[in-house]
Amino acid sequence: MPTLIQPQSLRQRPHQRRGTYFVQTWGCQMNEEDSEQMSLYLKQIGFEATESIQEAHVILLNTCSVRKKPEDKAFSMLGELSAIKKARPDTVIGVCGCMAQLRADEIRRRAPHVDFVVGTGQVGAIPGLVEEALQKRKFQKRIELPERKGATVEEMPKRHVGRESKLKAFVPIQYGCDKFCTFCIVPNTRGRERSRPTVDILEEVAALASQGTREVTLLGQTVNSYGKNMPEGKVPFSQLLRLLSDIPDLERIRYTSPYPRDFKTDVIETIRDCSKVMEHCHMPVQAGSDELLKRMKRLYTVDGYKEIVRDLRDAIPGVGLTTDIIVGFPGETESEFQDTLALVQEVRFDGAYMFIYSPRPGTPAADMEQVPQVVKKERLDRLMSLQNRITCEINQSLVGQLFEVLVEGTSHRNPGTLQGYSREFRMVHFPGSATLRGQLVKVRAVEAHQWGLKGEIA
Ligand code: SF4
After folding, report:
1. Are 168 and 270 found together in one domain?
2. Nearest atom within ligand 1 for CA of residue 221
């Protein structure tokens, strides 16, 4: 049986060890990064991480609303947590993230054992909410989001500065979205688009690099729209990349996900010119038919997308290109789906995240005519088999080539094997000593797989 810490001792020792916490995360990299922030905040007020939700004194569920499945999982876990709360009433339970932002009242109604619900713009409020839950035991809800463009610095989610040393780190540079694609709930869950002040980002990345981080991934819903809504002193995304490139000790810069319409020549030139900006682009296309793109309210055409790909490949030979594709969007006809297959066939992406469309209540697409599930599944199978074949063919064509790999550590399955990503975001496995962790090594590909490449240090 876990040892329970009494609420009195939790209150009396604010900055000593006060108990343990457990954060469950669903969803995207932005959520992963938010969860890391939550962990740092909890550590700052005296809690330590535990692997066991059964033993944790503070439990946070960081939820996702992008599809129905993670929402169902979160509600199911909330149901299970009522037993923990009954057995240990001192346990603090908080629900965070996109589902908390959208469905705070429903969470309160369906899970009355929850102590607080906190939205995506209020992560910095978590330490205070935990303290209040420990003291008052009164339900709290914090879901305010900035309403307008050009939010001030005070309206940005608060960032924790002290971090543990890590090889790779996510750094949010932009929050929210103004695009309102008809299938997407993000503008509702994360609010209007707003960019972090450049100086804050530079300071954070410099601090990370000085603590041993070799690679950063800049995060934003439409990351290359960075700077557009800055109240003053606009800094375009390409300029931010160049400024970050000057940070000593930092080796690699990645970013996700750019919006095609905003992928302009200046960004392509920056990737070409700055050796620290990796030759990989994950650019969601979503569909290969102009009619579908229009119904999705994506603000580009298939030809416009292909033109960007052409420019990228002309300027940066060998650039890695990956994408997101939605299958079974409302009203998708067989002929429109064939257009998506044709695009995949023509562009030959290195890889793709392929999803079945999932209606999100509150979005325009949820009220459109839906494609039967069986048709969606069958189309997803066809798309995946095409993309997987292309990925294998591309990987096969790379055997014999040299790649620069950042060594992340040993493979879980095979301790004698090191793993890491190439500059073009290809997973590479190769034999070597664990002491190489954190180093950039040249590896020659000797074997191709669907997941990536096997190689040997050159
Ligand atoms: S660009 Fe579209 S899909 Fe991406 S976050 Fe914004 S609304 Fe959602």
Report:
1. yes
2. 5
Pair 119, 19 in one domain: yes
The DSSP bridge pattern shows strands 252-256 and 215-219 to be parallel
The domain total for the chain is 3
Ligand 1 near 177 CB (within 6 A): yes
Ligand 1 in reach of 208 Cβ (< 6 A) = no
Residue reference for tokens 């950063």 = 216
Asked if 180 and 84 sit in the same domain, the reply is: no
**Domain end position, chosen among 226, 248, 278:** 278
The three-point CA angle 266-270-275 to 5° equals 175
Q: What is the CATH number of the domain that holds 437?
A: 2.40.50
Structure confidence at residue 10 (pLDDT): 42
CA 303 – ligand 1 centroid, Å: 20
Is the pLDDT at 152 greater than 70, yes or no? no
Evaluate whether residue 305 is within a structural domain. Answer: no
The protein residue with its alpha carbon nearest to ligand 1, atom 2, reads 181
CA distance 323 to 332: 19
Question: Is 364 a pocket residue for ligand 1 (Cβ < 6 Å)?
Answer: no
pLDDT of residue 228: 86
| Last residue within a domain, chosen from 243, 278, 313 | 278
Range of the domain at 213: 161-278
Q: Does the beta carbon of 261 lie inside 6 Å of ligand 1?
A: no
Omega before 225 within 30 of 0, i.e. cis: no
Whether residue 13 sits in one domain with residue 138: yes
Structure tokens at 282: 């994950």
Q: Is residue 60 domain-shared with residue 172, that is, in the same domain?
A: no
Q: Report if residue 86 sits inside a domain.
A: yes
pLDDT tens digits, one per residue of 198-247: 998 999 999 999 999 999 999 999 999 999 878 777 899 999 999 999 99
What pTM did the predictor assign? 0.89
In a domain, 54, yes or no: yes
Residue 414 inside a domain? The answer is yes
C-beta of residue 267 within 8 angstroms of C-beta of residue 255? no
Do 167 and 136 share a domain, yes or no?
no
Q: Residues near 432 by Cβ (< 8 Å), separated by ≥ 6?
A: 407, 417, 418, 441, 457
CA distances from 179 to 149, 182, 415 (A): 13, 9, 45
222 lines ligand 1 (CB under 6 A): yes
458, 402 contact by CB (below 8 A): yes
Are residues 137 and 37 part of one domain? yes
The sheet carrying 280-282 orders its strands as: 280-282, 320-327, 351-356
> What is the pLDDT, as a whole number, of residue 147?
61
Please check whether residue 48 is in contact with residue 21, taking contact to mean a CB–CB distance below 8 angstroms: yes
> How remote is the CA of residue 246 from the centroid of ligand 1, in Å?
30
The bridge status of strand 440-448 relative to strand 402-410 is antiparallel
